Amino acid sequence: MMFVADKWTDYEVMYAGSGEKYERWGEVVLRRPDPQAVWPVFADGKPATMDDLPTADAVYHRSDKGGGSWTRNKSFPQSWKIDYDCLGKRLTFGVEPTSFKHTGLFPEQAANWDFCGGLISDAVSKGRDDIKILSLFAYTGASTVACASHGASEVVHVDASKGMIAKAKENASLSGLSDSYIRFIADDCRKFCERELRRGRKYDGIIMDPPSYGRGPSGELWKLEDNFYDLASLAFELMSDDPLFFIASSYATAVTADASGQIIRLASGGTGNVVSGELGLPVTRMGVCLPCGSVARWTAN
Q1: What span, in angstroms and rounded, lies between the C-alpha atoms of 12 and 281?
Q2: What distance in Å separates the CA atoms of residue 213 and residue 18, rounded to the nearest whole number?
Q3: pLDDT tens digits, one per residue of 228-244
Q4: Are 223 and 264 in contact, with CB atoms under 8 Å apart?
Q5: What are the strands, taking DSSP E only, across 152-264?
């Protein structure tokens, strides 16, 4: 199964192939690497190369020493804004090319924003007015603002990077959510969950989007495939008695969508319903979908 984020207007993958993708972010066209673009590029139904396409506004080049850099072919702002209609709620995000090839937003996650937003809106319409959401490894806050926009009474946004926390606050403000009850917490996600358990805190929805690799609280290197189950089972202990959802995404190639689903099924104690699959983006000029990681979604019913 693939959950396709196909409702964008301010963003599109126009072409993908030969290890790269060619994207439009608002008015800006970027070309950057993508390991899942394992097929050839096609333009107008014929085999082509990225160099055959109109020159992108900026192209990302990897460095053999790690990281990389952008070559700008046209003048455009250092950062700019794009919008997403999340089931009738306008979300606005700041985007900016970084030295790690990212832009501060993962557009494929829009499929999850809609999923969470729909469940929260439905619960609110049925009279629930105290919905608490926990977003772990919350990055620049796209899931946070999606949940807040649909009526969550409290969203707790946790990320270890203070820089990403600052970006998330900006995105909340851009989306008109400055007055929403969002707690931005710079902390190690595992340690935060352990403290919340001791406090007796509970959440009606949990979103977990850990990186493939990371550093533990003492600086030790860890891999997601070695820690995914432990993280998920720990987070599941924070679920309320009347939960809405638990979502766990993974960009680790060693963790397949089916494996993610099995992990969440075990972590939940076999309760509820689990559906897993790949996140995807339509490649608009080629008629295919680009895989962009996996996700497992748990719901109570």
Answers
A1: 8
A2: 25
A3: 999 999 999 999 999 99
A4: no
A5: 154-159, 182-186, 205-208, 213-215, 221-223, 245-250
Under 8 Å between Cβ of 139 and 212: no
Q: What is d(CA 265, CA 96) in angstroms, rounded to the nearest whole number?
A: 37
Write down the domain spans for the chain: 104-299
> Once rounded to an integer, what is the mean pLDDT over residues 181-191?
95
Partners of 239 in beta bridges = 203
Whole-angstrom distance, CA of residue 211 vs CA of residue 213: 5
The rounded distance, in Å, linking the Cα atoms of 244 and 241 is 10
Task: Return the CA Rg of the chain.
Answer: 19
Q: What average pLDDT score do residues 26-35 get?
A: 97
| % residues pLDDT > 90 (the chain) | 89
Q: What is the CATH number of domain 104-299?
A: 3.40.50.150
User: What pLDDT sits at residue 216?
Assistant: 54
